[in-house]
Structures are given as structure tokens and as C-alpha cells.
Design goal:
two-stranded antiparallel ribbon; mainly alpha; 452 residues; single chain; 22 helices; 1% strand; globular
């Protein structure tokens, strides 16, 4: 038993180390990597006439904005290395309990997210020799943990609405939809998250544990009260808002899957259910949030808004201390709507390489023995999914001035993603409509192989 526990701990340590491996490059290699990333961003931006050559597949502009998230996320990974070195969160995600324990949370919230989600997402995955999942988010965290989509959903709503921090919210998009179609997990690995047993039960967290443990905060009632100093009526409204926030958390938790989805159609359904729950939670927060804010005077509203400014300033300060900050700022030009992209033939090749790497259409058609109609439907599925590179840009959302406006912006983003997932689900339904059971099984088997 001791040997098994030690083995599990060692595996957890290897997983956490992989989260921050990209931050431990030597100085020269790091500069070369960053220079290359910036060069890619500056060259893949093409005008509409060039994008037209790629139909509606997202295009080089979509790829550029998708890559911006990776650049911005890299600026936070240096802090993660120091946090996980002490082993504070090395095995917490592998236990069915609150991962925070009695430890103080790290100053940078993305550190804990990267450590926890990496361990949980990779604990049941055997897709490659190195424990680095291809469906990882740019900040080192994961949008899929076994059958669970968007593990930190409630926290992301809180951060976006109260603190004006939409960083994590903006990173959900194409990569997560792609991971739903081409699953990173084989069926036994996925099932381990819903029915852990034996040795694996000590290493693979259940889906319920993931959903429960990923809620690390909630509405910061006392921080808000300390800032605005509410009177009795305002405090009552704040308590009502806190109750609504807790109810919203429960709504999101209820969307946690009890069973592991067995195919791409079901995984896209899991995404839709999660997004539906988040939208319903946003709707439930609108009225109590407006009531509380409207009871505040102008001075109190300014103090409430200062919470968001303090959060943004803290994150900006952490980024500016990094050597990557200048490069990340330069890369963010790809998100500027007034940026004038230049034609570059190399960008076309880069986009084509992305399509060929992530969508080996010829191999899929050959494996499934598709006829012309099936191949055309596969092309539509590919195009529809790649289009989300553009519709779900990973560029950070500009925070609105008030909590109500931020809540509305969050809901709009969730609805946009919901529509994107629904469109991909419809395209997948059309693609699989005439496929035999053997062809469907062959298509599903492609997913786990892509992690090797």
C-alpha cells in the first residue's frame, strides 16, 4: 500500500512538473521561442482577400488570435514553477476533498488552477509518454478534466463580474470544441472519472470531486462589504446577492455529468449542458446584482468598481515583472481591431499546416472508407469547427465599467460559445447520419490515438 501511494505521488509530481516545463527553458532558448512566437503572430495576419482563400475555416487571423492566448498565458507560468516546487498542491487534486486544505492560496490564482487541473486532467490519461495533454489551455490549466467541461465555471463568473478578470473565460473556445470531437481519453480512461475503483481510485478523481473542488471562492461578501461599508438595507441586498451566487454555483454543479460520455456527440452535449447552466446562473444573478448596486451611492459604486481595478492592476504587475511581458504586449497587437495586417504567403502555409495537423481529412476518409457525400460532410464539420477560431477569439475581453455590464458581457460570450458548439454538433450529426456503426466506432477511435 505504501508503495502504491508513493507511486501515485511520484506520478502526481511528474504531472505538475509538466505544467510548468515550458517556463523552465534556458534564457537563450526562451528568447528564441518567444521571438518565433511573436514572428508567427505578426506574419499570420492577413487581409480579407487572403482569408477568402480559406473559406470560413477561421483563417490566419483566427489562428493569430488563438495564439495570442498562448503568449499571454506564458507570462504567468514563471510564478507557477515556484508555487509547485514546495509540493503544496501536488496530490490535492487526486483526493475527493477540498484541494485548498488548510494552506493559504497562492497570490496568483492561475498557479493553483494550473497545478490542480493538470493533475486531475492527466491522472487517468495514458495518451503519451510525457504527461503533457494536447488539450491544455495556454495558462497551463485544462478545460476538460475527464468528462467534466469547464471545471472552474463558477469561479470564472465571479472573477469576470466582480473583478473584471476575463482571462480564463477568453481561453475557452476552439481547442475545447476540438477536444470534444477528438477525445483525449480512451473509454476506460474516461470511465475512471465516474466510477473509480481499485488502484486507480487513489489516483483518478471522480467527476463529482472535480466539480466540487474547483469552486474555490464564490462571492467575496466580506471584501465587498469592507469596500463599500453598506448600511442595513444595503447589507440585506448584499446577503440576497450572496444567496443568489450560491444558488448559481449549485446550478452549475448540477450540470456535472454523472456518466462519462461515450462519443463525440455526447461530449458536445456535455458542453451544451454546462454552457446552458452557466447562462441560467448568469440570468439568476442579474436581478439581485442590479438591486444591490442600485442601492449604493456614487461613492460606494466607485469603491465597488475599485475591486476590479485592484485585481487588474495586480495581474498587470505580475505580468510586467516577467521577461515575457514586452513580447506578450507586442503579441496582443493581433487583438487590436485597428491593426492593419499584411499579406504574407508564409502565413497561408502555416494555416494549411494547422489544418493538416489537426484535421487529417485524407486519413479519416481512408480509415472510414467515406464516399463523396461523406467526405463533403466531413469538410463541413471541419470548416464549422475551424470557424470558431474567429467567432471565439482568445483575445481578452475588455472589462466593462460596471458589474451589471460585465455580467451582460459574460452572458454574451457564453451564448456565442453555445451557438458555436450547437453549430458543430449539427455538423457532426450530419456527418454521422449515414455512417455505419463500424464507421462511427472507427471515427471515435481516432481521438485517443491523437494523444500519443
Amino acid at each position: 500500500m505504501r508503495r502504491d501511494a508513493r507511486l501515485a505521488l511520484e506520478e502526481g509530481q511528474e504531472v505538475v512538473s509538466s505544467v510548468v516545463s515550458s517556463a523552465s527553458l534556458s534564457g537563450s532558448r526562451l528568447r528564441l521561442a518567444l521571438a518565433g512566437a511573436v514572428l508567427v503572430l505578426l506574419t499570420v495576419m492577413l487581409p480579407d482577400t487572403a482569408q477568402a482563400q480559406f473559406g470560413f475555416r477561421g483563417g490566419p487571423l483566427g489562428v493569430a488570435r488563438f495564439a495570442v492566448g498562448h503568449m499571454l498565458g506564458l507570462s504567468r507560468l514563471r510564478h507557477a514553477r515556484m508555487a509547485v516546487r514546495g509540493g503544496r498542491y501536488r496530490s490535492a487534486a487526486l483526493r475527493s476533498q477540498d484541494p485548498r486544505g488548510s494552506e493559504r492560496q497562492p497570490a496568483n490564482p492561475y498557479v493553483m488552477r494550473a497545478a490542480l487541473t493538470a493533475q486531475a486532467a492527466l491522472s487517468g490519461w495514458h495518451g503519451g509518454r510525457r504527461p503533457q495533454g494536447w488539450w491544455r489551455h495556454p495558462d497551463g490549466s485544462y478545460g476538460w478534466i475527464g468528462p467534466v467541461f469547464w471545471p472552474f465555471a463558477h469561479d470564472d463568473l465571479t472573477n469576470a463580474v466582480i473583478d473584471g478578470d476575463t482571462t480564463s473565460l477568453s481561453l475557452y473556445g476552439y481547442g475545447d470544441i476540438y477536444a470534444a470531437i477528438f477525445a483525449p481519453y480512451a473509454a476506460p480512461e474516461l470511465a475512471a472519472y465516474t466510477t473509480p475503483h481499485g488502484r486507480r481510485a487513489r489516483r483518478v478523481p471522480s467527476a463529482e470531486a472535480v466539480c466540487d473542488s474547483s469552486d474555490t471562492g464564490g462571492l467575496p461578501v466580506e471584501r465587498i462589504a469592507s469596500a463599500v461599508q453598506p448600511n442595513e438595507m444595503q447589507r440585506t441586498a448584499l446577503d440576497e446577492l450572496a444567496a443568489a451566487w450560491t444558488s448559481a454555483r449549485d446550478t452549475i454543479r448540477a450540470s456535472c455529468p454523472a456518466q462519462a460520455p461515450t462519443n463525440a456527440v455526447e461530449r458536445l452535449g456535455v458542453m451544451q449542458a454546462r454552457l446552458d447552466a452557466m447562462i441560467k446562473a448568469s440570468d439568476a444573478l442579474a436581478q439581485p446584482l442590479a438591486k444591490f448596486v442600485e442601492l449604493l451611492d456614487d461613492g460606494q459604486k466607485a469603491k465597488l468598481d475599485s475591486l476590479a481595478r485592484e485585481r487588474q492592476a495586480a495581474l498587470a504587475s505580475a505580468q510586467h515583472k516577467d521577461a515575457q511581458a514586452a513580447q506578450a504586449a507586442q503579441a496582443a497587437k493581433a487583438c487590436d481591431p485597428n491593426y492593419d495586417p499584411r499579406y504574407d504567403v508564409q502565413a497561408q502555409r502555416q494555416y494549411e499546416q494547422l489544418v493538416q495537423q489537426q484535421w487529417p481529412a485524407d486519413d479519416i476518409a481512408s480509415t472510414l472508407k467515406l464516399d463523396d457525400t461523406g467526405r463533403a460532410r466531413l469538410d463541413v464539420l471541419q470548416d464549422t469547427t475551424l470557424r470558431t477560431l474567429q467567432t471565439l477569439s482568445s483575445c481578452p475581453m475588455k472589462p466593462a465599467a460596471t458589474p451589471q455590464a460585465r455580467l451582460a458581457a459574460v452572458k454574451t460570450r457564453l451564448q456565442t460559445m453555445q451557438q458555436a458548439v450547437a453549430g458543430v454538433a449539427d455538423a457532426l450529426d450530419d456527418f454521422e447520419f449515414d455512417l455505419s456503426d463500424e464507421q462511427k466506432a472507427a471515427f471515435e477511435a481516432i481521438g485517443p490515438k491523437r494523444g500519443t
